[in-house]
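Backbone-to-sequence.
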């Protein structure tokens, strides 16, 4: 009876379940990023007009239709006297909580599966996103309470990437890893696009910054319901996966064991390839968070875009970043499948492109002066290059140790996310007067971080499975897995 029921359901779901997981994982990150970045646009319309500019003459200031007023919000009671430094702390506070739940989230996902740690984490962030306006109103706009809510949101979202890494390790063969992994992780660009563009449009239409928190919080709660119904931790526990797909995945996913393993902490923390991966993540996150968190402020303070324009033009670079990320994912898999590039060389090549391209063109944008079109064009080219990051280093943890994919992602992404604490505060402190020259200093710092961290990755990175992935296997089992990997042929399912 049960077998017949499963067979009937498997026929209804004609899309392979690993692709369903990929699509839902993509939407998980879309929701995570809309809730993460929406404040970056909203905060430009939540603060009272700054008086600093009247005391500081900027010879490089751009002229434009926007002075420094929050004219989209008609109710002055919804504007708050937050300084630039306080705004930096508010924007960075999300990452205070985000960093803390990475390693616990990764270990929980490895032990119990990534389904529930991901779903419950997103639910936590969604609820606190939805109630953010109520907290701000109740506290009369005290910035400390805004920080408190953002920390809780970060705690919920910290499980996202470790849980997804565990799920991808359980569901995706190595020859599909770049394109499916890129599909999932590139949700950050679409989330940023939707978060920026829709936030600007909603605030402009409703004349109320609170609307963005209600909309994105509610959408994420709906996603949680669909996730719990459609997705499962691994193929073995999925109730309506087809037998053909289950056998296909069983044959091609050979480095992942269902056996509960002790984490080889010493081997992990002294691994050269992992330390190189951490360095590359720090470089990427420094540049990415500079753009995601603070680009809307640059668009308003320097280029003088109003809120609707700000939302649209802040999102344009991420549209092109997403397009490049998807194309480069397929290209990377093609090079590996045809053996034109080794896994190691492909990870280094695409990571270098994702580091040095943005480094160069972000600097070029800062020298575009008040030419809005040229500045947006340079930012767009910069972020387009960054799209190759996902098939470069973002999936590299799966290469090194799929048995500990959650733990590795927690370490790498968690340490990288510390830059999310540093960057917004540093940008706020360096740009108190909102001048072009102050912002140029910010971009030169990003250039230096990109360059240094990429050199480390080039020297020490690897795309090979590390010996400590098989820490608890005996010699025969380890040798059998290595031989199976060599003998596996790529098949279609």
């Amino acid at each position: 009876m049960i077998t017949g029921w499963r067979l009937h359901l498997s026929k209804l779901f004609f899309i392979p379940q690993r692709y369903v997981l990929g699509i839902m994982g993509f939407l998980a990150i879309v929701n995570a990023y809309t809730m993460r970045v929406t404040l970056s646009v909203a905060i430009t319309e939540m603060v009272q007009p700054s008086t600093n500019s009247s005391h500081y003459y900027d010879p490089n200031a751009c002229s434009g239709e926007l002075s420094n007023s929050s004219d989209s919000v008609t109710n002055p009671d919804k504007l708050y006297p937050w300084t630039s430094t306080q705004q930096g702390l508010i924007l960075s506070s999300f990452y205070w909580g985000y960093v803390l739940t990475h390693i616990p989230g990764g270990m929980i996902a490895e032990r119990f599966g990534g389904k529930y740690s991901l779903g419950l984490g997103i639910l936590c962030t969604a609820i606190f996103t939805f109630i953010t306006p109520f907290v701000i109103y109740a506290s009369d706009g005290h910035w400390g309470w805004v920080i408190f809510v953002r920390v809780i949101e970060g705690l919920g979202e910290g499980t996202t990437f470790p849980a997804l890494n565990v799920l991808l390790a359980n569901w995706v063969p190595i020859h599909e890893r770049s394109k499916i992994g890129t599909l999932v992780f590139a949700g950050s660009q679409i989330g940023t696009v939707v978060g920026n563009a829709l936030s600007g449009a909603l605030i402009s239409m409703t004349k109320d910054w609170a609307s963005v928190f209600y909309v994105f919080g509610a959408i994420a709660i709906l996603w949680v319901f669909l996730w719990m119904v459609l997705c499962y931790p691994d193929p073995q526990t999925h109730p309506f996966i087809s037998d053909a797909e289950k056998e296909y995945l069983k044959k091609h996913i050979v480095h992942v064991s269902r056996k509960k393993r002790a984490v080889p902490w010493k081997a992990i923390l002294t691994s050269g390839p992992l330390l190189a991966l951490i360095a590359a993540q720090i470089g990427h996150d420094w540049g990415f968070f500079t753009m995601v968190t603070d680009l809307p402020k640059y668009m308003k303070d320097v280029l003088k875009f109003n809120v609707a324009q700000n939302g649209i033009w802040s999102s344009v670079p991420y549209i092109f970043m997403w397009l490049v990320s998807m194309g480069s994912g397929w290209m990377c898999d093609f090079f590996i499948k045809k053996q034109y590039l080794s896994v190691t060389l492909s990870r280094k090549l695409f990571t270098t492109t994702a580091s040095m391209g943005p480094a160069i063109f972000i600097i070029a944008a800062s020298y575009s002066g008040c030419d809005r079109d040229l500045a947006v064009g340079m930012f767009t080219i910069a972020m387009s290059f960054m799209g190759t990051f996902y098939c470069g280093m973002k999936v590299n943890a799966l290469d090194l140790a799929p048995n500990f994919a959650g733990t590795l992602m927690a370490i790498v992404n968690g340490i990288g996310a510390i830059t999310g604490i540093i960057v917004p505060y540093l940008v706020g402190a360096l740009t108190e007067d909102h001048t072009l020259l102050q912002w140029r200093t910010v971009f030169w710092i990003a250039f230096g971080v990109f360059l240094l961290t990429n050199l480390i990755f080039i020297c020490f990175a690897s795309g090979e499975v590390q010996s400590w992935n098989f820490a608890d296997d005996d010699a025969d089992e380890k040798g059998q897995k290595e031989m199976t990997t060599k003998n596996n042929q790529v098949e279609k399912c």
